[in-house]
Every structure is written in C-alpha cells, then in structure tokens.
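Hello again,

I reread your note about wanting to compare the complex against the isolated chains. To keep things tidy I'm splitting this into two emails, and this first one only covers the full assembly. Below are the input lines as submitted, including protein chains and any nucleic acid or small-molecule components. They are followed by the predicted structure of everything together. The single-chain runs will come separately.
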Amino acid sequence: MKLQILGCYAATPRTMTNPTSQVLEVRNHMFLIDCGEGTQVQLRKHKMKFSRINHIFISHLHGDHFFGLPGLVSTFRLLGRDKELHIYGPKGIKEAITLLLKLGDSWTNYQLYFHELTSKEPEVIFENDKVTVETIRLSHRVYTNGFLFKEKLGERKLNAEAVEKYKIDKAYFQNIKNGRDVALDDGTIISNSELSFDPPAPKSYAYCSDTGYKPDIVYQIKNATALYHESTFLESEAHLAVKTKHSTAKQAAAIAKAANVGILILGHYSTRYKSIELFKEEALEIFPNVELADDGKFFEF
Amino acid sequence: MKLQILGCYAATPRTMTNPTSQVLEVRNHMFLIDCGEGTQVQLRKHKMKFSRINHIFISHLHGDHFFGLPGLVSTFRLLGRDKELHIYGPKGIKEAITLLLKLGDSWTNYQLYFHELTSKEPEVIFENDKVTVETIRLSHRVYTNGFLFKEKLGERKLNAEAVEKYKIDKAYFQNIKNGRDVALDDGTIISNSELSFDPPAPKSYAYCSDTGYKPDIVYQIKNATALYHESTFLESEAHLAVKTKHSTAKQAAAIAKAANVGILILGHYSTRYKSIELFKEEALEIFPNVELADDGKFFEF
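Full-complex prediction:
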C-alpha cells in the first residue's frame, strides 16, 4: 500500500499547509480520501494522474475536508474525462455538488455517481476483486465516517521446486494457486500445502479523521497495518479536544496501542503549536511506532 | 487606486497559476473581486488583512471565479470575525453558500449579507461617501456582471496663499472646501475659485471578466482610469472565443481604444499559450497602453 499525503493540517489552508487530503494506492487501485480546498493543486504538485482517480471518499462535510471537491469535479470535465467517477460521502454531498454544477451550468460530461452514507453502523461501501472499503463510525460535530481499506487474501504462491519435482502440468497451476490439491496420473494426491506457499498476509489501512476519542473503533481496526489517526491537539489542550470533538496525540496513540496496529500515522494538526514533532513525542510515550504525516510525505507499508 | 492581482488565469488552479481573484483598494476601502479556489491562500501570501475585506463582488458562478468563497467565508469565522460581510453576486449564490454552511453545521458568528443580482441593466449596487460600484452587463455562458468602481468627486483643495492673503478665519475652511464663496467683514465677496483648487479628477476602475466581445459596454466605461478586460484567447483562436463566450486580446484592446481608457490590463489567460507576452503584443497593435496582469502583480493608478 502506498499513501501520498496531500494535506494534513486542521482548519484553513495556509501558504505552507494544506487541509486534509490523501491518495491511497492498493494493488494499483487509487483512492482519494477527503478533498480540502487546493487538493487539485496538490495532486498536480505531486504528479498524481487525475485519470487514475475513480473513487473519492469524503469523511464529513466540513470545509477543510470537502471544499476542494467542486473544483476537482469541474476540472475532471475540463480535462475531457469520460470515465465514471464515484463519490462516497455523507448525505447532502449530492445536493451540494449538484447545486454548484447547476449554478455554473457546468454539468459533467462523464457519469458522476454519488453514494450517500447515513448508516450508524460500519458498512462495506466498496468492493472489487482485490480490495474492500468499509466505513468506521467516528464521533465528530457532524456525521463523520473513517474508512478501512482492506486487501483481500491473494492467491497462494506456486512452490516452483515442488511443481518441478512432481512434473505437474501448467494446466494445474491456477488450481494450485486457488488452494486445490493435485492428483497425479498414478492416483497419488499431492496436498496443496506441499505445492504452494501462503499468500502474503492482506494489508489494511484505517483512516480516522476527524474524531473525538472513540475506543469502540478498536475492534474494527484491530491489527491494521497502518492507522492514520487525527491528533488535532496535544494533551495540554485536551479540554479543547473534548469541546471540538477532536483527539490528542496521546489519545491517538492509545487507540493504536489497543488496536495493535503496525504503524500509527498522526495528522490533522492544529497550527497553534510551534512544531509537529511535539505530537510524535507525546504519542511515543504510549505507542512505539509513530510517524508524522506532512504535506507531500509518502508512506509505503 | 491600488490593485493586487491574486489570480488571473482561466479554468483550473495549477501549481503556478491561480484562478481569478483581485483586491481593489479605493481611498482605504478594500473590495475583493471574484474568489476562485485558493483565494484565501493568495490573500495570506500577499499579506492582505482579512479583516479589511467587508465587501466581496462575484462576477458569475463558474468555479474559477467562485469556488474559493465557501472556504473564505468559513475562515472568517475561524478567525473570530464579528464585522458584517457583504457578498454581491448572481442569484443562487446565497443558496449555495447557505447550503454548504448548513451541511457542515458551521454557521458564521458574524452577519452575512447576500446581495443577489438579477438585473439585465447596469445598476448601482454599492455606495458610500467616497465610492460607488455599479454592474457592467457582460455576455458569457451564464449570467455575468463586470463591476465599475468610481471614486466620487472629492472636496476642493484650500488655496493656502489666498486664504492667508484675505485673512480668512478657519471656521470658513470647510465651506470653501465645499465650494462656497466667502463674504469678508466689509461685505466683499471672494469667489470660491480664488480660494480653492479643483479636487483631483475622480478615478475609476472597470473590471470585465468573463465576456465575449461586447462593444455596448463602451459607453459605460468611457474614460475609465483603468480597464481590466479578459483575454482568454489570441485572435488565432477567435473561433474558440466565440464558442465559449470569451474575448481575444485584440478584442479587449478594441474595447479599451473605443472607451479611451487610461490603461488596459489583460488577464484570464488560457494556459494553452507558451507565454502571456503574446497577449500584450497582440493588444499593443490596437491600443498603446497595455499591461499584463499576473498572479501577485500590483498596480497603482
């Protein structure tokens, strides 16, 4: 999985910091997650191909996660897009984008599908042969979902030596990858475990922004390869985190620890602090594997 | 008058070019004209004080003139604004901004006034003791207004020498500035023209973007100090200008010449051309005083 951070700061876009947006690539499939103002410029800056984005997930309808979407939808049209575009987000997103297109008499010349979310329980909202995406119910001032991207279990890997040893015909290879045993001409059954190796463990990425401290998400994101969890504040401003339904770095780390994730990526920083390193220091007291998101930063896991 | 260009390129924001927005300062009063995506970042970059912006004029509801407005309105709230904000633009602008605020449950804590425009004739939409703003009816794919900012005639200037010579009491100074004659104690009438000088000629700025070639605006912008006129295309793409209801640099120059303006400022360039100097070269064939707008450029006239 490859994760390109386009923006990861709270509230308003500034000269050097962008509001939330990131691109996740899973087995060559690209997902855009949130779309703050200026996302399309960030996409260009980091040389992401617009045409590879077919699925956009919006966590909630606050401007810093959403106000770049009308412009991106319009730009797709100007670029001559003809492929379908799917947008997943809270109810109301269709009305908003449709109204803006109507006012500008600027209808898209590609099919635009809205998948409006209202469920109070996690649900699978996207699935293809390689990936599923499910919502993570978060707790914020408006209806907000995180997203859990899970690879499906891949095919088993052929054990080339064993296949050679038993002189098994190519015609059986796909069966072996699918986990089947093979019967030789003399009737001997060779067990699949002798002919193949386990596929790589499926990876998963949990995106959780914006949310107050919400330990009940732990069961769902258990053992995720990577967790992006917002940390708008430090513990010194825990009262503001409660008031605004955001999290502190320490709370994000507590979630990471309880969920036993591989790596915790922090983001959605308030710009009140003099350095984002402070967030990492605070989280490291609770959880050992912490990284800081930053605009333009790239992760592979 | 001081004009700060924040963005002046057509269509979509890019890494190095911004969609349309500019700030005009007239006698210490600041007006924001159009508000493409990223305008708030450009305002910060050029160190414009957010609190000085109280009146925003939106020419039309295409994204490249308008999609920065929701974010700016939200940012004003985050900055703790309490002063009124007035937004002038085509009918529909109120519904759009209101819907976006509602979806984010992010109502402003300052008074937000919408002045929706529908008139097919020019009309005065703002007036204070120093400036009037009237619409210029343009011809584009959607309902579009340009804006004409006109200084009012100021007070006459006191002729210090003459006032000294006739030993006129201070109490009469404001009357003199207002154009009145003065009667001396012996009954002699001193004419105002002897006691004061004409005030500076009022300046005016005409903003015309986006529009097809529309010579009937000439009467209204006659003798303007400065004219910003869009030139999306060069004459070589005149057919595209007609099709998309934009202008060529040559057409912008023809308007400037017919209106006898002081200076023509070109902008709203298509990014298909290798240099914006080409626009200036084309316009200079028709009109002698041409400047190129560019992001970050500052004009004083």
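For quick reference: The domain at 2-154+200-300 of chain A is CATH 3.60.15.10 (Metallo-beta-lactamase; Chain A).

B.
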